[in-house]
Amino acid sequence: MRVVMTMVVLVLVLLMAAMPIFSQAMDIHQMRQIAAKNNVTCILVFGDSSVDPGNNNRIPLAPKSNFPPYGKDLFRGHPTGRFTNGRLATDFIAEAFGYTNIIRGFLDSNMEKVDLLHGVSFASAGSGYDELTTNLSYLRHYKIHLRELVGEVKAEEIIRNAIFVISMGTNDFLQNYFTETTRRKQFTVDQYQNYLISSMFRAVKAMHYLGARRLAIVGVPPFGCMPIVETLDDESQCDDEYNQVAFSFNSKIKQTLVTLKATLGIQNAYIDIYSVIASAIKKTQDIRFQGDVERVLWDGAGRIRRYMQRYEYVC
Ligand SMILES: *[C@@H]1O[C@H](CO)[C@@H](O)[C@H](O)[C@H]1NC(C)=O
Ligand SMILES: *[C@@H]1O[C@H](CO)[C@@H](O)[C@H](O)[C@H]1NC(C)=O
């Protein structure tokens, strides 16, 4: 929750406010005021399992989380397809902006037309920059629906004042590069990072073409500390080499944002989730966590096996 609130504040402060001082203590009221003052209309979300609210429920063969214990703290324990026990960071961001307390998946069959106005998520668990461009067809569809609903001028305005959030990259490294072999044979780590960056660049250009003017890109977390890496490495320590890859990829994202601002004039913010999580891990040295964690394994044939495991974890 603290990580999430920090993220909300970061999005607001970096993207909107001419606020000199970073205030941890900003309350939801202040956030709403800033959002309203800046005419923020909604958030449109692109990414992986970190922000997929259940789109994968509708995609055959895609990784799913529509079974317990996922969602155990949300909607009386009903799993929605979010890869979490509760809501996602993007749900909290939408709430902080004052529209809705959940962001629906664009493929959600329960979606009502009015939900389009509050923002949607196009995210799909398991995806990444490696294949992002294809998913922009959903943004085109979204825009068509929006136009039908509110007319062309209003639709353009909504998109212009929306915050586009992109949160992905972990699967590209952990799955597409370090687990599968095709990309590894093709690229060095550095070359692969550049390949992903150029894919991101193309995608942002396409978003800009469709009307996007405000962008928040979430960097990759220290994925060397993720439970899945511990499973693959068969040890309970962070993998420093992976963390170094994450760190240098984030540097490239930051450079790219500078270029995007200079070339497209798109207002943007980099969300440093790496530092937020790394410092959370550091600060809780002596705290033991207990709970259920999802273990994910890729077998030799490229199939994914997922299972839940009880764990006790000392950071
Ligand atoms: C918000 O909208 C109003 C009315 O259209 C406009 O005057 C103002 O400049 C906008 N503010 C920002 C920060 O875009
Ligand atoms: C994103 O694109 C990939 C690649 O085409 C596709 O498999 C996936 O289903 C798309 N995501 C969504 C939410 O449909």
Protein described:
The chain has helices spanning 2-15, 28-37, 89-97, 136-150, 152-160, 170-177, 182-186, 189-209, 227-233, 240-264, 273-283, and strands at 43-47, 104-105, 120-121, 163-167, 214-218, 267-271, 288-298, 304-314. The chain has 315 residues and is an alpha/beta fold. The chain has one domain: Rossmann fold, CATH 3.40.50.1110. The strands form three sheets. The protein has a four-stranded parallel sheet, sandwiched between helices. It has a two-stranded parallel sheet with strand order 2-3. Strands 7-8 form a two-stranded antiparallel ribbon. A hairpin with a 5-residue loop joins strand 7 (288-298) and strand 8 (304-314). The protein is globular, with a radius of gyration of 19 Å. Mean pLDDT is 83; it is low at 17-23, 296-304 and 311-315. Bound molecules: 2-acetamido-2-deoxy-beta-D-glucopyranose (2 copies).
The helix/strand class is alpha/beta
Mean pLDDT: 83
CATH superfamily: SGNH hydrolase
DSSP E strands, number: 8
What is the rounded Rg? 19 Å
Text of the CATH class: Alpha Beta
- Shape label: globular
Biggest sheet, in brief? 4 strands, parallel
Share of residues in helices: 40-55%
- How many separate structural domains? 1
GO molecular function, one term: hydrolase activity, acting on ester bonds
Keywords: Hydrolase, Signal
Signal peptide: 1-25
InterPro entries: GDSL (IPR001087), GDSL_lipolytic_enzyme (IPR050592), SGNH_hydro_sf (IPR036514), SGNH_plant_lipase-like (IPR035669)
